[in-house]
Amino acid sequence: MPHPETWLKVLPQGLHCEPGGFFIDPLRPVARAIVTHAHSDHARPGHDAVLASAETLAVMRARMGDDRAGTVQQAIGWGEKLTIGDVRVWLQPAGHVLGSAQVAMEYRGSRAVVSGDYKRVPDPTCLPFEPIGCDVFVTEATFALPVFVHPTPAHEIARLLDSVALFPDRTHVVGCYALGKCQRLIALLRQAGWDRPIWLHGALVAMCHVYEACGVRLGELRPATAAAKGSLAGEIVLAPPGAIADRWARRLEDPVVSLASGWMRVRQRARSRGVELPLVISDHADWNELNATLDEVGAPEVWVTHGREEALIHAAAARGIRGRALRLVGYGEEDEAEDPPAAEAAAAAPEPKTEDA
Ligand SMILES: [Zn+2]
Ligand SMILES: [Zn+2]
Predict the structure, then answer these.
(1) How far is the centre of ligand 1, averaged over its atoms, from the C-alpha of 18 (Å)?
(2) Which of 160, 212, 268, 309 could form a disulfide with 325 if both were Cys (CB 3.0 to 4.6 A apart)?
(3) How far is the CA of 96 from the centre of ligand 1 (A)?
């Protein structure tokens, strides 16, 4: 039985499955790519053949255009097994954003699973993570420090609604990433009984339409720019993180600036961004979820990528799991995997034309 390190390797383009002849989430254009999810650091334009979930392909087409999303696009159903080269390949949900998948690969009796980005708490906008037993589990490590224990999303949404009730004359503007976090916040607000229209910055509108086209119901959404001056008191407005503290937000009614991110667990981060109401809502597994997942998949070996590799490898070793840092560079440029201060620099344009700005 060949160990996965003999057939799954880190190349400059990304993680390469040699006997299958494909890359997973390649960083540069390649002949054959499997894409875990549509965040721009994982789904890059310009590949020839792209295999992904139907939802991921729909998001990719909406963001980059049909031709740049892959010359040949192949959607694969959940759990549907394909043979590519000498490798059996299938996708299972990762619970991160709409369409997000883990890639499972089997070659001559050994099995590796690449998690992509994932979380374990229920998310009304995507299918839940499904653990797959394997010999090597490749995990993300965005929040892999014991200090990162996320509160429940319902708790954080209740804090937001309490604040709205407390300040009926102010507008609550909540920073959130365009793909995933925005739609999840809307769905969580609906679950909590908020049935008023939710107002959107222009950069968030297109992705909400894609979610709705995929069957995720978001209720009444309105463009914030269409609101009459002074009419948004007591309302909730969602905007990209780069817009909440700039002049775009200043035209709102005495705004309460909020931001939904796992990084809001760190108080200085919230303060340095001028966030009055930090909401700890993350689309990435926290420390406990990461460790529980390692135990659940039962892999004797774990490869750790984008994030704080060392702490997780240390914690895994204490339980007899062999760890290895993959040191893949180039991930964490779109969603909250990136530290907010860097995100701020990237979002220098006040009203970005695309969600990738
Ligand atoms: Zn992601
Ligand atoms: Zn990522």
Answers:
(1) 25
(2) 309
(3) 7
Residue ranges, comma separated, of all CATH 3.40.50.12650 domains in the chain are 153-279
Q: What mean pLDDT is reported for the chain?
A: 93
pTM of the predicted structure, to 2 decimals? 0.93
Domain 153-279, what architecture?
Answer: 3-Layer(aba) Sandwich (3.40)
Q: Which ligand is nearest to the CA of 283?
A: 1
Task: Tell me how far apart the alpha carbons of residues 103 and 89 are, in angstroms, rounded to a whole number.
Answer: 7
337 touches 344 (CB < 8 A) = no
Can you read off the two tokens belonging to residue 246? 């700039």
pLDDT in tens, 116-143: 999 999 999 999 999 999 999 999 999 9
Å from CA of 162 to ligand 1 middle: 29
Separation between Cα atoms, residue 180 and residue 284, nearest integer Å = 11
CA distances from 302 to 48, 54, 101, 111, 132 (A): 30, 28, 18, 12, 13
Distance CA 86, CA 14 (A): 20
Name the amino acid, one letter, at 91. L
Distance 38 CA to ligand 2 centre (A): 10
Q: How far is the CA of 278 from the centre of ligand 1 (A)?
A: 21
C-alpha to C-alpha distance for 143 and 173, rounded to whole angstroms? 25
**Does residue 344 register a pLDDT over 70?**
no
CATH 3.60.15.10-classified regions of the chain = 4-147+283-326
Counting ligands in written order, the one closest to the CA of 98 is 1
pLDDT in tens, 142-170: 999 999 999 999 999 999 999 999 999 99
Question: 34 alpha carbon to ligand 1 midpoint, in Å?
Answer: 15
CA 230 / ligand 1 centre spacing (Å): 36
Q: Which CATH superfamily does the domain covering 4-147+283-326 fall into?
A: Ribonuclease Z/Hydroxyacylglutathione hydrolase-like (3.60.15.10)
What's the CA-to-centroid distance between 114 and ligand 2, angstroms?
A: 12
